[in-house]
């Protein structure tokens, strides 16, 4: 049996947003590896072994997946959204750096719909002009880097999407981010909080920075800050394609 490894994105939540390519890989898989809530989205079947693991062991999980593929298994590593956006694809390539003997394995990255794009679609088109995307978690990078990037992106008038805005273990980070945005962009700038997008609990709220408060975001929220031209139309929010 020839083993392979697919690093797949399951999309933001709604099963209809899992791509046919990912569905096909899962149908052929012998093993599925990933963070517990993502593996829970896979329907068990005979011949398929599920390997749910904790969030903090990304590199171990990547090494284990590579080992199984080298042994001849057909392995799918699952992430939510897209596997290349703050997710497992980088961890697999990092694990591969130390193992030249594994670099000839059949490895594919299967894209998915990332949370930011699903949120933008349901809000209207807030990312219709230039934008950037920043992970607000300071687990893997110091807060000073995050703050520098936020200020530079605001000065460049990018719309911005923020992942991992707020966790119970560091509630103060997002409050500081909001202070920076108010300083750089003023109180009238639009900001959208998109929670649990494409799931039955979806909630999308757009307010001004003056009205925004840290408790509007949690770890199931992706936050989109408009650029200086972003505006409301009816119940939507959009960024015109001509700006600057
Ligand atoms: N690889 C994922 C991101 C993983 S980081 C992707 O491409 O979407 C986890 C963060 O993604 C969460 O803290 C939240 O900010 C965001 N996120 C994931 N799914 C979401 C959803 N359905 N609705 C809103 N935000 C979501």
Strand elements, count: 13
Poorly predicted runs of 5 or more residues = none
| Measured distance between first and last alpha carbons | 56 Å
Radius of gyration: 19 Å
Bound molecules: S-adenosyl-L-homocysteine
Q: Estimate nothing, just give the exact number of structural domains.
A: 2
H-E order? EHEHEHEHEHEEHEHEEEEE
Q: Taking all residues together, what is the mean pLDDT?
A: 95
Instruction: Examine the secondary-structure arrangement and name the CATH architecture of the largest domain.
Output: 2-Layer Sandwich
The CATH class of the largest domain turns out to be Alpha Beta
CATH homologous superfamily designation of the largest domain? Tetrapyrrole methylase, C-terminal domain
Helix count equals 7
- SSE class: alpha/beta
Q: Approximately how much beta-strand content do the residues carry? A: 25-35%
Q: What is the CATH topology of the largest domain?
A: Methyltransferase, Cobalt-precorrin-4 Transmethylase, Domain 2
Strand line-up of the largest beta sheet: 3-2-4-1-5
Main beta sheet: 5 strands, parallel
User: Percent of residues in helical segments?
Assistant: 25-40%
Shape descriptor: elongated
Structural description of this entry:
The protein has helices at residues 20-28, 36-39, 58-70, 88-97, 115-123, 143-155, 172-185; strands spanning 4-9, 31-35, 49-53, 74-79, 107-110, 124-125, 131-135, 159-163, 190-195, 203-208, 221-225, 231-233, 236-238. The protein is an alpha/beta fold. It folds into two domains: 4-113, 3-Layer(aba) Sandwich (Cobalt-precorrin-4 Transmethylase, domain 1), CATH 3.40.1010; 116-238, Tetrapyrrole methylase, C-terminal domain (Methyltransferase, Cobalt-precorrin-4 Transmethylase, Domain 2), CATH 3.30.950. The strands form three sheets. A five-stranded parallel beta sheet has the order 3-2-4-1-5, sandwiched between helices. A five-stranded mixed beta sheet has the order 7-8-11-9-10, with helices on both faces. Strand 7 (131-135), helix 6 (143-155) and strand 8 (159-163) form a beta-alpha-beta unit. Helix 6 (143-155) runs parallel beside helix 7 (172-185). The longest helix has 14 residues, at 172-185. The termini are far apart. The structure holds S-adenosyl-L-homocysteine. The site of S-adenosyl-L-homocysteine has 25 residues, from helix 5, strand 9 and strand 11.
